[in-house]
Amino acid sequence: xxxxxxxxxxxxxxxxxxxxxxxxxxxxxxEIYREFADxxxxxxxxxxxxxxxxxxxxxxxxxxNIPDWLRLTAEGRxxxxxxxxxxxxxxxxxxxxxxxxxRLCEGNCVIEQSGHGTVTIGSxxxxxxxxxxEMGWVxxxxxxxxxxxxxxxxxxxxxxxxxxxxxxRQGFQVTVYDRYDRAGGLMTYGIPGFKLEKDVVMRRNxxxxxxxxxxxxxxxxxxxxxxxxIRGKHDAxxxxxGVYKTRDLDIDNADAGGVVRAIDYLTASNKVDFGDxxxxxxxxxxxxxxxxxxVIGGGDxxxxxxxxxxxxxxxSVKCLYRRxxxxxxxxxxxxxxxxxEGVEFVWMSAPGKFIxxxxxxxxxxxxxxxxxxxxxxxxIASVGIQKMRLGAPDVSGRQSPELxxxxxxxxxxxxxxxxxxxxxxxxxxLWGVDGLEVTRWGTIKANFQTHQTSLPGVFAVGDIVRxxxxxxxxxxxGREAAESIAGYLTGAARIAAE
Length: 498
Hints:
InterPro entries: DPD_II, FAD/NAD-bd_sf, FAD/NAD-binding_dom, GltD-like, Helical_ferredxn. The protein is an alpha/beta fold and 498 residues long.
């Protein structure tokens, strides 16, 4: 009987949830896809071929049991589908919204390879869990037995929160420390509302708190509390800080006014979305309204920036990327959405210099350096753009961009946003920690199976170990580390420091 409800990919075409028109969605920060209706979700789930070797599952970092919950959805057994989905994923409704499915599960769907169009896995995953919330099926952790051992988690992003959930389920006492005033990390302040509405993240934060996770917010480790104090207070510590240091450009006028970091720009926009007061937004520094905006970079952060600038009412938005469309790291789906909303992509281009001018009163644009001399503060006026071509492949196999001599030109700009990726902060120095080993890239050294660092009882997960990566990988790391921490604390699997 079950198979009769499946294998419909031959007769049923692929359909995504309806996308709001670009003219409408570019005016607000609400999510751009409408919800699947129950019948439509079941219809699209029934397209799954239930193949013997599910590549969608093997290419998901969490190895979600995708074929099973698609079958259950097609059969109308949504609560069971939710149970299967959440058994491997702490935040399925978030992954359904922000995972680059075109590069992971959907990109490896067997029926996609055969030309029938992939199953819309992400949209169905989102639908299942949104329905579960509406129906009251999502319950906070209720451990069978409380344990005395406590775990301190530094960082309330997806890795830290996934670990917190798994540890609470086993009865451990969990405290999460975070520098921001709301938990969620980049899910809260880095990803715009049009991809992930903030009440979705806040709902999960409250769910964790209801399950007994303690949050200590507005807490800068190394300033408000020392790392040693956290180690002294807890039986194990998990470092899940993410990476927030922006890669920079070594070009003329790199610190000109109007040249800003993507993380600052996106955080300001999200805080405004929450209704917070943001002086740097109100005075125009981190606000694109009425400005000619240039975003530098080709990853998902750059896509978030260009689409945010459109919604803030920018005069024009251009995205510079030094390779072509086929070689950009960001989601192709996001590029298409951005183009529909009015973003212009300038491929095979890189900034060569920032050209500034002294705006307004000359005296008002003077500021003293630390050593005393006065320097002129320049305001961005244009970007000197260098045209590139793709040459020989680099060590990763991608073709390296090469400069085309004599093809430079200047592009006027009032706001330049650097979305060049993130690097780890120097945590041992920042926190005054001896013995915490890092790699040559500055990421924390941790065993790739146990997530144990060089310090006994200290574990690390997510971007601070991997470098800038995806939310879904951080969730996987957090869940794995929780298992290792539980073994370490109970003596079931004492882990020797590597």
